[in-house]
Specification:
Belongs to the Tdpoz family. The chain has 408 residues and is α+β, with helices and mostly antiparallel strands. It is 34% helix and 23% strand. A hairpin with a 2-residue loop joins strand 11 and strand 12.
Length: 408
């Protein structure tokens, strides 16, 4: 009997393969952050003869996180050119190292024909890439930008003025990767919460008497926001048991705004506060508020007031604002005021205002600064600015009194 033998064997299997690791990716993005500036050079003929290497400069402007300025050399930058050319440069005006940028300088054809003189690196393939400025004061431009004889008979010069437009493209690089999540984060509402705390009156532990009105507040909030309040309420010379404080030299509406800012970290609706949209009324409030902000060392509020006063400078307000800037060490605001007063078209009108009389009484030494400023301006421009010594009219004294208009 035949039998069939069957051999059974197990089939071997390969071990399961692991899934491939996830692919990650990132992208390096390099681009230019562009900015533009227009620089008008009025009185070109008066700048001639200033000397080789001497320049007139534009205001600084910001591009790509750096400050820049345009420098125009009426007699040229290099002695070897013997004042035959004007020079034009863009300079890095802020601290920085190895700032890479592209530049464009345009001398505008003021005849309307559009035949501008343009030197540009935008849209061109540069052999060594963008230019690198090593440090503050580094420049890019042309020593022989334009021959003077040709410039003075060209359409670029109109009414003794030149117009230069510049473009700066600062090279920025960043690496972008995938985001693991995209959960929106709400903006901070701490100021609103503190403001509502003030409105509710809950937990108030100090009351201020101001010009016949009372204001309740919280010592800890005041001490956190103002080093002056901190010293008054919790300092070694302060009375920690004080629950009522009288405030002098600050009017009630101003103190109310001050408290609002301390809690909300922003100003209230000023039009609603003063009941009008008058620019002069807003300026008066900002002047009083600046003095209060300085008294309580609220630096951000002080800067906000400086900015508003700078925007609101007029013939009738500049003198009192200048005195205020001097008294409260607002150096940028002071500089803006001096420039405004020194303009020939403004000087005489400002001197006839009540504010100028106040300036002479409260800060007589500022008149000396103004005279020096006028002298430098006249020397630089070569134009007559009248007789600045007339500023020292009678009425000057050195008593340093402060006289402020009241809000009501």
């Amino acid at each position: 009997m035949n039998s069939t033998a069957r051999v059974c064997g197990e089939v071997s299997k390969s071990p399961p393969t692991s899934p491939p690791p996830p692919l990650t990716a990132s992208t390096s993005v390099t681009e230019t952050v562009d900015g533009f500036h227009e620089f008008k050079i009025s009185g070109y003929s008066l700048t001639k003869g200033v000397g080789v290497g001497k320049y007139v400069a534009s205001d600084t402007f910001s591009v790509g996180g750096h400050s820049w300025a345009v420098y125009f050399y009426p007699d040229g930058k290099s002695p070897e050119d013997n004042s035959s050319y004007v020079s034009l440069f863009i300079a890095l005006a802020s601290e920085g190292a190895d700032v890479r940028a592209l530049f464009e300088l345009t001398l505008v054809d003021q005849s309307g024909n559009g035949k501008h003189k343009v030197h540009s690196h935008f849209g061109r393939a540069l052999e060594s890439g963008p230019y690198t400025l090593k440090c503050r004061g580094s420049m890019w431009g042309y020593k022989r930008f334009f021959r003077r004889t040709g410039l003075e008979t060209s359409d670029y010069l109109k009414d003794d003025s030149l117009l230069v437009r510049c473009r700066v493209g600062v090279v920025k690089s960043c690496t972008e990767g995938p985001r693991e999540c995209n959960i929106p984060v709400p903006v901070s509402d701490l100021g609103q919460q503190l403001g509502k705390l003030l409105q509710s009156g809950k937990g108030c532990d100090v009351t201020f008497d101001v010009d016949g009105e009372t204001f309740a507040a919280h010592k800890l909030v005041l001490a956190t926001r103002s080093p002056v309040f901190r010293a008054q309420l919790f300092g070694p010379l302060g009375d920690r048991n004080t629950d009522r404080i009288e405030i002098e030299d600050v009017e009630a509406p101003i103190f109310k705004v001050l408290l609002h800012f301390i809690y909300w970290d922003e100003l209230p609706d000023m039009q609603e506060l003063i009941g009008t949209d008058s620019k002069s009324a807003s300026t008066l409030v900002a002047q009083h508020l600046l003095a209060a902000a300085d008294r309580y060392a609220l630096e951000r509020l002080k800067a906000i007031c400086e900015s508003k006063l700078c925007e609101g400078i007029t013939i009738n307000t500049v003198a009192t604002t200048l005195a205020l800037a001097e008294q409260h060490h607002c150096f940028q605001l002071k500089s803006v005021c001096l420039k405004f007063v020194a303009m020939p078209e403004n000087l005489k009108a400002v001197m006839q205002t009540d504010g100028f009389d106040y300036l002479k009484r409260s800060c007589p030494f500022l008149l000396t600064e103004l005279l020096k400023y006028l002298a430098r301006l006249r020397e630089h421009s070569g134009t007559a600015i009248g007789h600045p010594k007339d500023i020292l009219a009678d009425g000057c004294d050195a008593n340093g009194r402060r006289v402020k208009q009241r809000l009501h």
